Amino acid sequence: MKMLIAIVQDQDLDALQDELTEKGFRITNLASTGGFLRAGNSTILIGVEEEKVKECLKIIEENCKSREITTSVLSVTMPGDAYIPFPMEVLVGGATVFILDVVEFIRM
Ligand code: 2BA
Questions:
Q1: From ligand 1's centre to the CA of 33, what distance in Å?
Q2: Burial class (CB in 10 A: 0-12, 13-18, 19+), 52
Q3: Nearest CA to ligand 1 atom 22
Q4: What is the DSSP letter of 32?
Q5: CB-CB neighbours of 65 under 10 Å
Q6: Beta strands in the chain, from DSSP E residues, in sequence order
Q7: Tell me: the pLDDT tens digits for 5-62?
């Protein structure tokens, strides 16, 4: 068994959850925050049998879009502790996926 940890944008979450559950995948959704943009995103845990990993990745790919976001979250520090917002374009997503081996899976 594998554990897929998928970090996705909130805008893609509903469609992705719907399709994954419809196709029989079991998922847990955690609210998370990106370290760079400091904006909300969603982390989905999906425990998957090895032979279904490809199908799961395909569903994630089809439902998660890349978006260009303009952020002013970065700031330039000036002498005297003044912060000047520094806008920049950042391409976010589709999805960031980690695939881990599961040593043991127990459901009681
Ligand atoms: P954030 O950390 O908020 O990053 C949002 C987007 O900002 C990233 O999109 C990337 O395009 C850019 N970015 C992130 N760190 C950067 C840096 N140090 N310098 C320049 N640009 C940077 P994605 O790569 O699609 O990542 C989307 C979200 O996925 C991230 O949100 C973070 O929550 C998660 N993520 C991505 N890679 C990760 C990793 N290696 N480990 C843990 N979480 C990760």
A1: 10
A2: middle
A3: 36
A4: E
A5: 15
A6: 2-8, 26-33, 40-48, 67-71, 75-78, 82-85, 88-92, 95-101
A7: 999 999 999 999 999 999 999 999 999 999 998 899 999 999 999 999 999 999 999 9
Residues near ligand 1 (Cβ within 6 A): 7, 34-37, 39, 41, 90-93, 96
What tokens were used for 41? 């995103």
What is the pLDDT at residue 73?
58
The answer, yes or no, to whether residue 82 has pLDDT greater than 80, is no
Q: How confident is the model at residue 76 (pLDDT cuts 50, 70, 90)?
A: low
Distance 106 CA to ligand 1 centre (A): 32
Answer whether 0.70 is exceeded by the pTM.
Answer: yes
CA angle 66, 88, 29 (to 5 degrees): 40
Q: What CA–CA distance (Å, rounded) separates 39 from 10? A: 10
